[in-house]
């Protein structure tokens, strides 16, 4: 066994410690600094590089140039960029520039206000086999590597949430809703199977601010609208039904409600 003691030594006094931790083959021939780490594989084989949008082809460039003349925002920013004037808006020369006849905002090509052109670019970023139908944030990130327009995030969200391929193939993570069960039609007389519901907080008329709706679910599909007030009680609901429905159609066989206080009390 060895008796040893651990003692802290400030780093400024450890002048020879690096020599003990270095491996001989890592050192340069001249005995200088260690070589800088280098990646031997080309950048093209990495998935992040593969997912980047291809360089702007001639067709897309021509579409951007054609739509730019119809976009007031593009014309305004282009004028400011050419004049190199300052502005209180985010359109000063550090943000806006002109590269290859294209208007560039913070290094991203500005896409004029053209729905078809913007949808085509979103489709290219989302539906490409190398991207695999990513979600909203990833699709937006892929687009913003090259392009930008003011409503890009909203347009990407609308496109991705409406993508039929994503809806058909991606796993549903939320809880499934139960199947809706239709109400059976067994009676052949009106208002034998009824549904009752209150419509509250209506504009006041003749002293009333609500309405009790009684619907026939069987043969007639008719409805009776009974004016009332929001403070109506269970006993008052029964009186309303007696005066407006019972005296004409009698008692129902089935009554459906939302089990509110006016029905459950």
From TrEMBL:
InterPro entries given in the database record: Integrase_H2C2, Retrovirus_Pol_polyprotein, RNaseH-like_sf, RNaseH_sf
Start and end residues of each Integrase zinc-binding domain: 114-170
Entry's Gene Ontology molecular function annotations: nucleic acid binding
PANTHER family: PROTEIN CBG26694, PROTEIN NYNRIN-LIKE
Protein name from the UniProt record: Integrase zinc-binding domain-containing protein
Species: Fibroporia radiculosa
């Amino acid at each position: 066994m060895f008796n040893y003691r651990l003692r802290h030594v400030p780093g400024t006094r450890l002048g020879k410690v690096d020599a003990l931790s270095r491996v001989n083959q890592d050192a340069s021939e001249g005995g200088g600094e260690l070589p800088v780490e280098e990646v031997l594989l080309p950048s093209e084989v990495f998935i992040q590089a593969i997912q980047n949008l291809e360089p702007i082809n001639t067709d897309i460039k021509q579409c951007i140039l054609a739509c730019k003349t119809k976009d007031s925002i593009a014309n305004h920013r282009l004028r400011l960029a050419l004049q190199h004037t300052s502005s209180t808006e985010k359109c000063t020369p550090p943000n806006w520039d002109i590269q290859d006849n294209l208007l560039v905002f913070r290094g991203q090509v500005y896409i004029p206000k053209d729905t078809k052109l913007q949808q085509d670019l979103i489709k290219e970023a989302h539906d490409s086999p190398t991207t695999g139908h990513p979600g909203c944030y990833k699709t937006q990130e892929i687009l913003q590597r090259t392009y930008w327009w003011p409503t890009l995030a909203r347009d990407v969200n609308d496109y991705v949430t409406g993508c039929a391929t994503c809806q058909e193939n991606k796993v549903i993570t939320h809880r499934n809703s139960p199947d809706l069960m239709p109400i059976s039609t067994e009676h052949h007389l009106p208002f034998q199977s009824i549904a009752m519901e209150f419509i509250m907080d209506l504009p006041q008329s003749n002293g009333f601010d609500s309405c009790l709706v009684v619907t026939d679910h069987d043969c007639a599909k008719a409805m009776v609208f009974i004016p009332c007030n929001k403070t109506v009680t269970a006993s008052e609901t029964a009186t309303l039904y007696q005066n407006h429905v019972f005296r004409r159609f009698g008692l129902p066989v089935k009554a459906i409600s939302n089990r509110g206080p006016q029905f459950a009390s």
